[in-house]
Design goal:
- The structure is a single chain.
- By secondary structure, the chain is mostly beta strands.
- 11% of the residues lie in helices and 50% in strands.
- The strands form six sheets. Strands 13-14-15-17-18-20-21-22 form an eight-stranded antiparallel beta barrel.
- Strand 20 and strand 21 form a beta hairpin.
- The relative contact order is 0.13.
Length: 357
């Protein structure tokens, strides 16, 4: 009897131990399942539809009045500014006259009298025949605001990721406007009191440049035996005025150089200095022994200055200038020639600066 009682106690204890072990195993499995589920990313379901948040008239907006768009009947349209992403599409019973995608909004030009509008989106579906609550008026501006779905995600994790961002900065320099290198070659004629002089003018430039101008009357000065004043009285001979044949001869040459500047695609201005000489000689009569006297009153030499303009018409260049010898003798000059090369303006890209940090 005592032996059976001991066996019953031992079996009872064994059963209790098995139950305890089973409960502990179930708790461990449940804890592992909870820990595993805590590391998953749980997306929050988003609303898959959109709606019209507000529709109102903008009485102070004159966009539809200033930039009027007309329908097929020639009447000015109403303008509806839809604050929505650009992937929306629209339709109405009277049609859409014009659509313009602006920054942050879509401009719809609708015929006068439109009362409903259908809105479509490739992902969020269709809102058909939305009532505007009024008839749209011609040249009036309206605003429609849409409430679009927003997908939010709640992340639950215990992982920290470190990232390094390399930022490259490229500074793009604006294109530089450059005038192409070109040249002018002109034949010139100078008019003065003692006849014309002939010359040539050369210029090389971009927006600025240089030029050289040489001219002569193709005559040489004769050998003189003395000099006289402007009236013909000999110098150094007691003011004696000899007899002359009436024949005079003038030798003239001028050389100037300077700068030329571009004022526009057709107009240039140039200025320069140099040296010029104009010698006038009078022929003595045979009774005076013949020969020539230099007329100092009509002879000029010294620093020359020139100022003028050069007009380009196509490939033809035309110049007009004024030249003076020491401010005592003046002459006007005109020239005609050609332009060598292209004188237009081109854009050249400048070197970009690249920075990494």
């Amino acid at each position: 009897m005592m032996k059976n009682s001991s066996n019953l106690k031992i079996n009872g204890l064994s059963t209790i131990c098995k139950v305890v072990i089973l409960v502990i195993a179930l708790l461990c499995q449940s804890f592992h399942a909870v820990k595993t589920s805590a590391q998953k990313i749980v997306p929050v379901s988003a609303d898959s539809t959109f709606s019209v948040e507000s529709f109102r008239q903008l009485p102070t907006d004159v966009s539809a009045f200033i930039d009027a768009v007309r329908d097929l009947n020639g009447e000015a349209c109403a303008l509806v500014k839809v604050v929505a992403p650009p992937d929306f599409a629209f339709s109405s019973p009277l049609g859409i006259v014009k659509r313009s995608d602006e920054v942050g909004e879509i401009w719809l030009y609708l015929p006068k009298g439109t009362k409903t509008l259908t809105l479509k989106h490739p992902k969020w579906g269709v809102l058909r025949d939305y009532p505007l609550g009024m008839k749209l008026e011609s040249r009036m501006t309206y605003e429609m605001r849409l409430r679009v779905p927003q997908t939010s995600v709640v992340e639950m994790h215990d992982t920290v990721i470190y990232t390094k961002t390399v930022v490259d900065t490229v500074t793009v320099a604006p294109a530089k406007r450059v005038v192409q290198l070109h040249a002018y070659t002109l034949l010139s004629a100078s008019m003065h009191t003692d006849g014309p002089s002939w010359g040539i003018m050369l210029a090389l430039m971009r927006r600025h440049g240089c030029y050289i101008h040489a001219s002569t009357n193709l005559h040489s000065s004769p050998t003189t035996t003395g000099s006289c004043d402007r009236s013909g009285y000999m110098t150094g001979d007691g003011g004696h005025k000899p007899y002359y044949t009436g024949c005079t001869q003038t030798a003239e040459y001028a050389l100037t150089a300077g700068l030329i500047h571009r004022l526009s695609c057709h107009l240039n201005i140039f200025e320069g200095i140099g040296y010029a000489n104009q010698t006038t000689s009078w022929q003595l009569a045979e009774s005076e022994g013949g020969g020539w006297l230099r007329n100092d009153g009509l002879t000029h030499k010294g620093v020359a200055a020139e100022l003028g303009i050069l007009v380009q018409i196509g490939k033809i260049g035309i110049s007009a200038s004024t030249l003076t010898i020491a401010g005592k003798q003046w002459q006007g000059c005109i020239g005609v020639g050609v332009c060598l090369g292209k004188s237009g303006v081109v854009k050249r890209k400048q070197k970009s600066n690249h920075y990494s940090h």
